Structures are given as C-alpha cells and as structure tokens.
TrEMBL record:
UniProt gene name: glgC
Listed pathway(s): Glycan biosynthesis; glycogen biosynthesis
First-level EC class: transferase
Protein name per Swiss-Prot or TrEMBL: Glucose-1-phosphate adenylyltransferase
Source species of the chain: Rhizobium vallis
E.C. numbers: 2.7.7.27
Keywords: ATP-binding, Carbohydrate metabolism, Glycogen biosynthesis, Glycogen metabolism, Nucleotide-binding, Nucleotidyltransferase, Transferase
Entry-linked CDD domains: ADP_Glucose_PP, LbH_G1P_AT_C
Reaction equation(s) it catalyzes: alpha-D-glucose 1-phosphate + ATP + H(+) = ADP-alpha-D-glucose + diphosphate
Binding residues annotated for alpha-D-glucose 1-phosphate, in chain numbering: 107, 172, 187-188, 205
Amino acid sequence: MVEKRIQPLARDAMAYVLAGGRGSRLKELTDRRAKPAVYFGGKARIIDFALSNALNSGIRRIGVATQYKAHSLIRHMQRGWNFFRPERNESFDILPASQRVSETQWYEGTADAVYQNIDIIEDYGVEYMVILAGDHVYKMDYEWMLQQHVDSGADVTIGCLEVPRMEAVGFGVMHVDQKDNIIAFVEKPADPPPIPDKPDFALASMGIYVFHTKFLLDALRRDAADPNSSRDFGKDIIPYIVKNGKAVAHRFAKSCVRSDFEHEPYWRDVGTIDAYWQANIDLTAIVPELDIYDKSWPIWTYAEITPPAKFVHDDEDRRGSATSSVVSGDCIISGASLNKSLLFTGVRANSFSKLEGAVILPNVKIGRRAQLKNVVIDHGVVIPEGLVVGEDPELDAKRFRRTESGICLITQPMIDKLDI
C-alpha cells in the first residue's frame, strides 16, 4: 500500500451521495421513506455510513441528491448533519430534485442527479469528485481510493468488491487486466469474468466512483446531449469511459476500515427484508463482523437525547432480561425477555412477552404475552397483547409480509387489519 501524502487529497474533494432510491425490495419499510433513510443498527440510518465514511476520510464538502419520499431523509440530515461550517471551507448541501434544468424534469438517472447540479459543484472549485451510493452498509477510507486514482492517471476509478465468481451474476462486473485496468464492464453477466490473480472471484461494482471534477463535468455534459442515453452512471457514463478512456478498479479490501475485531471486509446491500434483518441481527453476535463500537471510525448520526435503557421486574416468568441483544436508549424492558434481538430507541416491551431474532424500530409498544420470533417491526407499531408470530408460517403469511426464509415484516396497517 502506498504511503499517504502529507496533504490529504480528501480535503480537495467533494462527496456526492446519490440518495434518491426507492428501495422497493424493502416493501412496506419504504412506503413512507427512501431506502437511505431506513433505520439501521439501533440508532442510525443507512445513509449515515456513506456520510460518516466521507467525514472520517477527511472530506469536508458533501452533497446529497434526494428524490423519492425524501422528507424523513431530509429531516434526519437537518438534525444530524448540520455541523458543517462554511468559514472552515465546509459545506453540506441537500439537493432535492427541484426541476432546476427544466420545469418538467426530475432526476432521470444517477448521472442526471449530478448533472442538474453542475453549477453548485463548480462554485466549490474542488479538484476531485467522489460519487457514492447512499444505501449500503460498510466502513471505507476514501483517501486510499483518491490516491490510487491520482497515481494511476485514471479517468475514473471504480470501487469494487471481490465476490465468488458465480455470486456476481447480479452485479455490474469489471473485467480487468493484471494491473486492474478495466477492459470491459458487464452488467449482470451469466458467466462473470474472473479476476486474473483470483480466478474463482470476480470484481463487482460498489457504485463508488472517483473522478477529476473537470473530467466528470465534461462527461456529464456530453451524456446530457445524447438523446439515446438513460442518464445513468452504470449504464452510460462508465461503459463510455471504459471504451474510450482509462478506467481502473479499486479493490475494497485496500481501503476497508477494520478494527482489531473485524477480520474480513464488510459490505452489505441491505436491500431486501432478509438482508436487512440479517445485517441488524449480525450486530448482536459476541464479535460482530461489523464493529460499530470502533471509536476511531465513528458512525455519525442524529444523537437524540434519551434516558438510558431500563430493565425491570425480577419474578419467575416476568423478568426484564436480554441476552445477545442490542438495546438502545429510552427502551423499557418491563418483565419481557429478549434473545438475539436489536431494539431501536423508545421501545416498550411489556410483561411476559418474549422476543427472539427481533429487529424492532423506534417507538414500538409490545403488549403483554406477545411471542415474536424472526420479525422486523416498523416504526411506531403497537403490538397487541398475546400476538404470536413465528410459530405458524401459513397464518403469518396471511397476516404479515413473510419472506421465503421466514422473516415477518410487521407494520401498523397490518396490525389494524387483524381480527383478534
């Protein structure tokens, strides 16, 4: 690994986060919020990972493009990310699709979401642009990627995951040479091209791109003038550069931030109910694959003022207890028992209830004698007394959103329809 420069390149870079995604595979979890605004890890939102990575990497200019059901996302960023100061050459811009180019045109694709704000980018005069997806969970120091971009003389540097070759069929895959120069970009290939030094693996795109700013803006203007373009980085901008310029792959393992407890690079697209549940439940392990307790690389978020969590009652069958669980502030575990569960802020679990493999979003109230296993419960849901979930698959599927692996998503409208 090359030695870091004395003057970090990150200080002359802008992070531009694409956070307009619907996240439709998360079903009812994104009925009222964009995927980047979905809660994660007890107190954060998914977008906090990309934003924290940028901040911790030394980037002090950040723009976030929003579009789909953006209110909760914008509110979260206004509350939790309002500490940037212009007098320190810092900026944090929330950039909704505001029809700035045309009165009838919203963001038509990921590239268009940057193109429509070219004038704002140019005003900052930054040397480099780091384009990020706002809907993945990972820890990464973008400074290493910036350094590789400059040292290689690339037109674009693309963040890539090493994944088992036949698991890459659902990704955009980079076909690279021995020096990680990208020869071809293949979208969801049936037979993914192998990595030369690791033939059982392929390089899948993470949706992270580094450009010199001038090169990017020229590319966006050229793309905007093409009537046949879909205005998308993965479909239009990147394939054009691979064919006509120099594109280089950056391997995530080189810049993944790991504490002493993290052995493998951790990156998750929590875009399905199953993946979302699993990534949250992973945090309850004795030694989680993702260390959110690493103070050297904090995950910044809205630090809500809450009282501590509380566990009460110590009678047989009515004991406030938790094993292998994450319990956030303002939770009261009142004669309930938790196992391998993750509770967000403000949850109330009442007497004789039992939770196992439960991901409970903020301000949920769980009635007495409820038995909940392998569930995701949306924000503010009131679980009625005696509700049993996780024992009868057919009944669960009729009442709730049940995945093939048996995870049940529960929302208030689903509860309201119950005849109990």
